[in-house]
Design a protein that fits this description.
The protein is of the alpha/beta class. The protein has 16 helices and twelve strands. The strands form four sheets. Strands 3-4-2-1-5-6 form a six-stranded mixed β-sheet, sandwiched between helices. Strands 7-8 form a two-stranded antiparallel ribbon.
């Protein structure tokens, strides 16, 4: 694997970062209580009390870095991107650290120290990673430390591989050129700026003349028979051999490769909710749903009275929806329509001026207040705070036949709000765009993405164009 190229570097970087986070915490303490830029009202604590938090930082930092993707291959990132990446990681670390202080009752930690820590840690992490990755790239660029790489296949797959390698100089690969099996490319001198060094018959000669260290076989599926010939020719050469499978057109949701008893398994469609991802999202849902229920309970009591006193029928409206992995759930909402409103129209999406809605129901829908009971579903675990909105089975049957990949949205637990909703793709709007945004959310899920959607949801409650 390409990641193995930098294992020693990454291990060293992680250890270095943990040391820097410790220094940032202790430095924040020193600056706060030495210079006292803000008044100290409760006396100066002992430094030893603040060292109690160091083990928490040591344990929380790798988790934070993992959740924010801090150690993914850096590539040619801009400085602002590196600052943002470091800031995300430190913010996540700070949240976990502050959360841990609630369990250390014997010490009251300064909020000013926490702010200093966030600033110092972000600056140190940014500079550390920028300098470290740049050092690695310069180290790799020295000829003695580069692996001269040959790509068999000058088609789309081989070209994409070359671009990705060029974007990541830190892996230490240098593309020497292409070997083409396409007769139409035999007479080309270059492809994507790299020389075409010959055909498959020239493979052994090209390896010796260019001192090739490794070969990537990047051929389309229709030419897989050629792979056997290429491997036979490479059998007598002292080069590393890697094969890039041509499954790009089939890879969909969280695609990747894993290993089972030494056998590589290619995931074409998979949910991101496994292991610590699932644990964290559930913890996130429980904490925030409890807070929402406590915050909105007085409002929900008023809505119960308003619905009960202004129209006949039950306060709650329960409807079957399709959720995670196609399992059905009975979703509860505050009733916003007259009883029996769909007897004449049948199932359909809400629309502007919908005559089925009660006067109170129109207000509830306009500000999405009819959705508040779903926080209890989140607490129970049948829904999540953020995710694709669950759909009625009658619409699922219709959409799955018309829209490619529609059913992939059920690889994530249904949400009270979602990426499609905060981008105003809700109600009677384009189903294709909703699915596009739902799938984007699943493919790019992260705790910070969830938090971003929740913050934007508050804004959309008041300014959505399609809430009716």
């Amino acid at each position: 694997m390409i990641k193995k190229q930098n294992q020693v570097f990454l291990t060293s970087l992680i250890i270095s970062d943990i040391i820097l986070m410790s220094l940032a915490w202790l430095g924040a303490f020193k600056i706060r209580f030495t210079f006292q830029l803000f008044p100290v009202t409760h006396g100066i604590p002992d430094l030893i009390e603040y060292t109690y938090m160091l083990p928490v930082i040591w344990l929380a930092f790798p988790f934070s870095a993992s959740m924010t993707g801090l150690y993914k291959q850096s590539g040619r990132k801009r400085f602002l991107s590196e600052i943002f990446q470091a800031g995300k990681t430190v913010t996540f670390l700070a949240i976990l650290t502050i959360f841990a202080t609630f369990f250390i009752r014997s010490v009251s930690y300064s909020r000013v120290v926490a702010v200093y820590f966030w600033v110092f840690a972000t600056v140190l992490l940014t500079l550390s990673h920028r300098l470290s990755w740049r050092f690695l790239i310069k180290y790799r660029e020295k000829g003695d430390y580069l692996k001269k790489t040959l790509v068999i296949g000058a088609g789309e797959l081989g070209q994409n591989l070359a671009k990705k390698i060029e974007f990541h100089p830190e892996v230490g690969f240098m593309i020497s050129g292409f070997i083409t099996v396409d007769p139409e490319k035999r007479n080309l001198k270059t492809v994507e700026g790299y020389p075409v060094l010959g055909g498959l018959a020239d493979l052994n000669r090209v390896i010796h003349e260019n001192s090739i260290n490794q070969v990537f076989i990047a051929l389309p599926a229709k030419l897989y028979g050629t792979v056997d010939e290429a491997i036979e020719r490479l059998a007598e050469e002292m080069v590393d051999i890697k094969v890039v499978p041509d499954f790009l057109q089939y890879m969909r949701l969280n695609a990747g490769i894993e290993e089972f008893e030494g056998m590589p398994i290619i995931n074409l469609v998979a949910s991101p909710m496994f292991g610590w991802n699932a644990v964290f999202k559930r913890w996130f849902d429980v904490v925030f749903s409890l807070g929402a229920i406590a915050l909105f309970s007085p409002l929900m009591l008023l809505i119960v009275l308003a619905v009960k006193l202004t129209s006949k029928g039950p306060v709650f409206y329960r409807q079957e929806r399709m959720g995670l992995d196609g399992k059905m759930l009975m979703m509860a909402k505050f009733r916003s329509m007259y009883v029996g409103a769909e007897k004449e129209t049948g199932p359909k999406f809400s629309e502007k001026g919908d005559t089925r809605a009660t006067p109170v129901g129109k207000i509830l829908r306009r500000f999405s207040l009819d959705e508040l009971p779903q926080f209890f579903h989140v607490l129970k675990g049948t829904m999540s705070l953020v995710g694709p909105r669950p759909e009625r089975p009658v619409f699922v049957e219709e959409f799955k036949k018309k829209i490619p990949r529609y059913m992939h949205r059920h690889k994530m637990k249904s949400g009270v709000t979602g990426w499609a909703q905060v981008n105003d793709w809700r109600g009677n709007t384009s189903i294709d765009k909703r699915i596009e945004y739902d799938l984007y959310y699943i493919e790019h899920w992260s705790p910070l993405f969830d938090l971003k959607i929740l913050i934007q949801t508050v804004w959309k409650v008041f300014f959505s164009k399609h809430a009716y």
